[in-house]
């Protein structure tokens, strides 16, 4: 690999490990250990850590090295407020340019809305989570605004990290799908700008409120904490159940 490819490879591997929870908040990221794990030289690892620091996944302190950033109320609020704002910008662009959203894009959004109801019936929440993230991205991608699309996509990694970190079980996914996904699709399809903006904002505010409740140590509305398990294998399975994005 070229030096740039090595840096990108190292950054991707470390980022994925942080998102998945293999590296937890506060964990030190020791260069020599990463070099041995990734089988790359020191320079790509250092550049990867600098890149991840700019993305917010890593904190680098003088004379202390790199560590995984904390998951706290401030970081969660920052990510969700930015994603909310980018989505509102995307919706404004779509409604200001009626011909902006293609029939293909609209069909994609419609299919994802239908899937939201179908997947809400599954015991495993992973399909619902993935579908929801794709639904959000499909709306933003319909604008074809390159910066908006890129910034929104980059922050998806943070939402996945929060999902894995909290491992909350949703108690009424079907209601959420109808309220925040199906109704949003219909508002976009029917050209109801104010309603679409209202639903989008409510969707992200609800997710943010749920996470902030978890940080505060209270039970979030419409969700439940995983039950304590007896066996290690069952606990591992429980951790795989994520928060709806």
Main β-sheet description: 3 strands, antiparallel
- What is the straight-line distance between the termini? 35 Å
How would the global form be characterised?
A: globular
Query: In percent, how much strand structure appears in the residues?
Result: 5-15%
Describe the protein's architecture and organization.
The protein has 245 residues and is mainly α. Helices cover 68% and strands 6% of the residues. It has helices at residues 3-20, 31-38, 42-55, 73-96, 103-119, 126-141, 146-166, 173-189, 193-216, 232-239; strands at 28-29, 58-61, 65-68, 169-170, 223-224. The strands form two sheets. A three-stranded antiparallel β-sheet has the order 1-3-2. It has a two-stranded antiparallel ribbon with strand order 4-5. Helix 1 packs across helix 3.
Key words describing this protein structure:
245 residues; mainly alpha; three-stranded antiparallel sheet; two-stranded antiparallel sheet; 10 helices; 6% strand
Topology:
Layout: H1 3-20, E1 28-29, H2 31-38, H3 42-55, E2 58-61, E3 65-68, H4 73-96, H5 103-119, H6 126-141, H7 146-166, E4 169-170, H8 173-189, H9 193-216, E5 223-224, H10 232-239
Antiparallel strand pairs: 1-3, 2-3, 4-5
Explain briefly what this protein structure is.
The protein has 245 residues and is mainly alpha-helical. It has 10 helices and 5 strands, in the order αβααββααααβααβα.
């Amino acid at each position: 690999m070229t030096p740039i490819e090595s840096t990108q490879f190292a950054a991707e591997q470390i980022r994925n490990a942080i998102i998945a929870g293999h590296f937890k908040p506060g964990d030190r990221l020791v260069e020599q250990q990463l070099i041995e794990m990734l089988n790359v030289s020191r320079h790509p690892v250092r550049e990867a850590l600098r890149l991840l620091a700019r993305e917010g996944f890593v904190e680098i302190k003088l004379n202390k090295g790199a560590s995984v950033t904390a998951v706290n109320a401030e970081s969660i609020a920052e990510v969700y407020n930015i994603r909310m704002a980018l989505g509102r910008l995307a919706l404004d662009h779509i409604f200001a340019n009626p011909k902006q959203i293609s029939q293909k894009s609209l069909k994609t959004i419609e299919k994802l809305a239908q899937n939201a109801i179908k997947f809400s019936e599954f015991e495993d929440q992973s399909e619902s989570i993935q579908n929801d993230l794709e639904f959000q991205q499909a709306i933003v991608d319909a604008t074809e605004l390159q910066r908006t699309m890129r910034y929104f996509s980059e922050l998806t990694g943070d939402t996945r990290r929060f999902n894995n970190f909290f491992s909350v079980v949703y108690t009424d996914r079907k209601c959420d799908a109808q309220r925040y996904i199906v109704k949003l699709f219909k508002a976009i399809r029917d050209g109801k700008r104010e309603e679409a903006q209202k639903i989008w904002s409510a969707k992200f505010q609800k997710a943010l409120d749920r996470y902030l409740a978890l940080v505060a140590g209270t039970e979030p509305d419409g969700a439940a904490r995983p039950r304590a398990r007896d066996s290690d294998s069952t606990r591992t399975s429980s951790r795989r159940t994520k928060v709806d994005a």
